[in-house]
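Q: How would the structure tokens look for this protein?
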Amino acid sequence: MDAVRPNGERWRAAYATDPARTRGRLIAEASSPTRSDFQRDRDRIIHSTAFRRLKHKTQVFVHHEGDHYRTRLTHTLEVSQIARALARALGLDEDLAEALALSHDLGHTCFGHTGEDALDACMAAHGGFDHNAQALRIVTRLERRYAGFDGLNLAWETLEGLVKHNGPLLDRSGKPTARYVERGIPAAILEYDALNPLDLWSQAGPEAQAASLADDIAYAAHDLDDGLRAGLFDIPELRAVPFLADLLDEIDRLHPGLEPSRVIHELARRVITRFVEDVIREGGRRIAALDPKCVEDIRHASEPVIVFSPAIVEADAEIMRFLWARMYRHPGVVAVRKKADAIVNDLFAAFTAAPSRMPEEWSAGLSDASEGRIARRVADYIAGMTDTYAVLAHRKLYATTPDLYWELPSRGLPLTEP
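A: Here is the predicted structure in token form.
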């Protein structure tokens, strides 16, 4: 059942997305003799400029606070590993799940969610800023590497999963779903959908559902890991979360007296294991109940099939509540976020007032452009910046630049000799 096919693909269930039946690419291309369409998409994403930039984009801690904390790139790789594990266990297309995991954060700005929030506020009069819509802009327009097209010309299924991995954007009557009711669907998504319809009303394919949960799993585990190692909270404090208390009891029982650095790792790996195993069980149960004969049966279902069980939904929510209170809203993190917010606001103001301050490839053609077009070009430019580049760009424009350095407390976790 797990045999490898000649082109490197593994066994897929009937309800998985089959690359041999792809809806194709916007610009037709000859097929590859050695790779499936989803393998080609994965490779194009990895070789993109936007993917490389993830190395120096913030996850929670800014770039110079420590080499061991997650960046967008290391987070993305962890999501990819988990997505492949889920896909393999559930009989899905591993390559599509991997491609979606690798591309899901391409649209994030410098300075993590702080940068996105700041840029969204700057763009309030021009449609706002949404990292999911920005990822679509990157893979369909902004990457300019290939002779025959802008973007990466990804397969329909990859684009659909990228846009809809958090669920449908429209209900069956064509009205925006709950998360888009207030502000509407981002213009970039609607514009592309008019050109190449992505069925915004249907569920995402199963691989996109798996990649979305892989993102949630990675967040829960690695933010606990980073927060503990940064000294924002201590191991005993995690016992306020019953799910984590049970895992810590297990670690104490199996490894009494274990040094704190190893406890931290043992906890993170157990969170991942429990969550992954839960998705496999619950997803398998829901797939069996639905009994899909093809991937369209999953897309047309009334709800996702690759999901957490109710117990893990609650455990994940408890972990997130703890992290919001003790990590994301920690005074030191908030102070750095305010400084990062100021940098983004300053850059936007400077570049919209004088687009010529941007490199020529970004400022070209804006001499007589509308305010909205200039703002969107500036947003594209700033969104692509790494943390490091944004700080350097600010220093070139302003006499003083906020110092983002925050000296994290020592955790007292020395390496021990074997």
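DSSP finds 17 helices and no strands in the chain.

The first helix runs from residue 37 to 46.

Upvote if useful.
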